[in-house]
Specification:
single chain, 196 residues, alpha/beta, 7-stranded mixed β-sheet, 7 strands
């Protein structure tokens, strides 16, 4: 995700991270892109405290605005941001379509949205992934349970396309990543249409 964000041809801009966790990506962006003003949202105050401390340690706390809140109801006006991104948050949401709708609403015309998340695998891929996690990565029982629950909570490719259509977004890029195709990237950019 970080590499793709750093490739954006944007010298000055307003950036929003949905579900920032400990703030790793916004901190790296602030260090490498001094012309970007960054907002980072997360529902966990504990994560935000950690993110604020790490931003202060990195000397970028003045350029990152850490806010408590949900990606499903953003406290920003329409068209506020040049780029909105989310990294592995979608599968945690009860109503993932709201993230698509809200991201589309707060991104300016001609701006970009970038979402990366898990993709629900077919049953045979799920068995292979579980085997890799158990025998190669040596996950314990709790890690295996969490991994399985996350994959089953993820969206299928068809569901992703349906939710994008509901949000009025046509992706310029929808890519399945990983050797087993268990993550996806969506990029909505100036070559696409956003229907209100």
């Amino acid at each position: 995700m970080l590499r793709r964000l750093l490739e954006l041809p944007l010298q000055q801009g307003r950036i929003l991270d949905l579900g920032t966790g400990p703030g790793r990506i916004p901190i790296e962006l602030a260090l490498r892109r001094p012309g970007w003003e960054i907002w980072a949202l997360d529902p966990s105050e504990e994560m935000l405290e950690l993110a604020r401390a790490q931003a202060a340690d990195a000397g970028v706390s003045q350029r990152i605005h850490f806010l408590s809140g949900s990606a499903q109801g953003l406290p920003f006006a329409a068209g506020t941001f040049d780029h909105v991104f989310s990294n592995f948050v979608l599968h945690h949401l009860d109503r993932p379509e709201e993230l698509f709708l809200e991201a589309a609403r707060v991104t300016r015309e001609g701006g970009r949205i970038h979402i990366r998340d898990l993709l629900r695998p077919t049953p045979w891929k799920a068995r292979i992934i579980r085997g890799i996690c158990k025998h190669v990565l040596r996950y314990d029982a709790i890690q295996l349970q969490w991994s399985s629950e996350s994959l089953m909570a993820a969206l299928s490719r068809r569901e992703i396309c349906e939710l994008l259509a509901q949000a009025g977004l046509t992706p310029s890029h929808l890519r399945l990543a990983g050797c087993l195709g268990y993550t996806f990237d969506i990029e909505y950019g100036p070559r696409c249409t956003h229907q209100a």
